[in-house]
Design a protein that fits this description.
The protein is α/β, with parallel strands linked by helices. The chain has helices spanning 15-19, 28-39, 52-62, 94-107, 128-138, 164-178, 201-212, 229-234, 246-251, 264-272, and strands at residues 10-14, 43-47, 67-70, 75-77, 86-89, 110-115, 118-121, 142-144, 157-161, 183-186, 191-195, 219-223, 237-240, 254-255. Helices cover 37% and strands 22% of the residues. An eight-stranded mixed β-sheet has the order 5-4-3-2-1-12-13-14, sandwiched between helices. The longest helix has 15 residues, at 164-178. It is globular and about 55 Å long. The chain starts with 9 loop residues before the first strand and ends with a helix.
């Protein structure tokens, strides 16, 4: 990357596979490093595919007040002390959402439909095991309904959940079908995440930087998965953790020696923030 390196004034950190270990806990060293950075005047933002209510518990475990980059960059909100002002919001177009609702209902797939910071899904089919998996993974509570009722509504995003090999096939299919009408990512092994065109964590950084009165060159971004790649590339200092995907490692200025189970975030913070 060609950024001029500046001392970070904001840290944007991904949750799963980065801040959290494989047991979905935050290593204490990560907590200490981020708290120390914030006490030294460096802001911290949590960047995730999750909706804000599901990021809040992570913030509480850190014992910090953070801005939130949610829905993979689809919505950015300020700190709790500020009343969580919406800094940026770009929902999935209603016609694209309808496309996935109709497909999931016809084939019996679980579709997570995120609307007004609530998670909705259909009854029946083979959806229950995937609902259980997602709830255990994120702490999400489902509202079970008929997703057809949301025809004409623009959700923050949708996630299609299925077996990894099928997910990969569906990714190729929908990228070909929809082209530039949606931003589609493979994240967790069973997740196919769909957002509005142009939405990604990296695209959210300039808006957040402007809100904070800094430049993107003053952001340290840390991530592991393909949906973190744009954020890592956009930041002044982009860091991929040792367990990161090929794409994140290629985009990064620095790859940690530690993985997410070994407090890789703390390594990055100590190296670039102090």
């Amino acid at each position: 990357m060609t950024h001029e390196t500046k001392k970070p004034r904001l840290i944007a950190v991904d949750i799963d596979g980065t801040l959290l270990n494989d047991q979905k806990q935050i290593p204490p060293e990560n907590i200490d490093a981020l708290r120390q950075a914030q006490s030294n005047g460096v802001a911290v933002a949590i960047a995730s595919g999750r909706m804000p209510p599901l990021i809040e518990p992570i913030q509480d475990k850190l014992g910090m007040d953070c801005a939130l980059i949610s829905y993979n960059g689809g919505r950015v909100v300020g700190t709790r002390a500020e009343g969580r002002p919406v800094i940026y919001d770009n929902p999935l177009p209603a016609d694209v959402a309808r496309h996935f609702v109709e497909f999931s209902q016809s084939q019996g797939y679980l579709l997570n439909f995120f609307y007004n910071d609530r998670l909705y899904a259909d009854h029946g089919g083979d959806r229950e095991p995937f609902r259980t998996l997602y709830s255990r993974h994120t702490g999400a509570e489902y509202y079970i309904t008929d997703l057809a009722q949301f025809d004409g509504c623009a959700p923050s995003k949708v996630i299609l959940l299925t077996a990894p090999d099928i997910r990969d096939q569906l990714y190729d299919r929908f990228v070909d079908e929809l082209g530039a009408r949606a931003a589609i990512f493979k994240t967790e092994p069973m997740y196919l995440e769909v957002m509005a065109p142009g939405v990604n964590k990296g695209a959210a950084l300039p808006t957040l930087a402007q809100y904070c009165g800094i430049s993107t060159d003053e952001i340290l971004a840390i991530g592991d998965a393909d949906n973190d790649t744009a954020m890592i590339a956009a930041a002044g200092i982009g860091v991929a953790v040792a367990n990161g995907s090929v794409a994140t490692r290629q985009a990064a200025d620095y790859i940690t020696e530690r993985n997410n189970n070994e407090a890789a975030v703390a390594e990055a913070v100590h190296r670039f923030v102090g």
